[in-house]
Amino acid sequence: MQTALDLSDYNPAVDLARAETMPARWYIEPDFLSLEAEKIFYRTWQPIGRLEDVMRIGDYFSCELLDQPLVIVRNHAGALRAFYNVCAHRAAVVAQGRGNRKSLQCRYHGWTYDLDGKLMRAPEFEGVENWRAEDVCLKPVRVEAWGPWVFVNLDPAADPLASNYGAIANEISAAGFRLDMMRLIERRDYLIDCNWKVYVDNYLEGYHLPIAHPGLFRELDYDQYRVETHRLYSKQHAPIRAVEPGEVRDRRYARSGAAEENALYYWMGITYFSTQTTLDDLDFRGYHCSYIQG
Ligand code: FES
Ligand SMILES: [Fe+2]
Prior knowledge:
It contains 6 helices and 16 strands. By secondary structure, the protein is of the alpha+beta class. The strands form 4 sheets. Strands 1-10-9-4-3-2-5 form a 7-stranded antiparallel sheet, with no helix packed on it. A 3-stranded antiparallel sheet has the order 6-7-8, with no helix packed on it. Strands 11-16-15 form a 3-stranded antiparallel sheet, with no helix packed on it. Strand 9 (140-146) and strand 10 (149-153) form a beta hairpin. Residues 272-287 have low confidence and may be disordered. The site of fe (ii) ion (FE2) has 3 residues, from loops.
């Protein structure tokens, strides 16, 4: 069902010098979050987990995109599959947590699905008429791997992931990084009591850099800090300052050689830093992961 909302109290197209923040009600009225779910969270590619958790045949993990329970699995042919984690019988989940299995079994009445979501076994259903087990399947969801991450898109008609973020992969590899070699080294979880857009607003501004991040400020050429906006992602970048002769301070970024090097920050998909934005309480549950090229 499409949510009808009056959006006339904000115009995103005005000149930047006269731009205003969105009205407060856009952040606090639950109807807006429902509209955002329909227009954004359910229709765009969102990172949902890590590829290293589903490397072997039979590896799976359950997860949620907003209020939608999902299961990601590596099938017997070696392909990634994703399904709504909803049993076709009475809607219990068919997988919990993560692990490795030859099939997915619902723990309510024991219906068992193969790793392509097809129903293999429904106990005591012999003799039930007007029903064919071969017609029953978990509802599939679009899934793709990109670098060390697994992405899903709840819109079956969505464009492939690469068409959303194609330029990023090239830019990162041109900068000398192997995305597929990135390994998780640390994860920190935060519960931030705000609407998700408040968090994104703050993430996307470099304005707080001189005061809030003085160490980083010393390493980047702030005068050349730029934000590029694209339809489905944005890129913030600034040249890294060369290490001064005799400098002993620990640095976040070390510029090697004479080449122009940039710090690159991409914002790709709302859930890149947040896997659970609950529809009930508008709280933002974020996590920040650090990766290293392994
Ligand atoms: S709800 Fe899954 S087997 Fe009944
Ligand atoms: Fe910051």
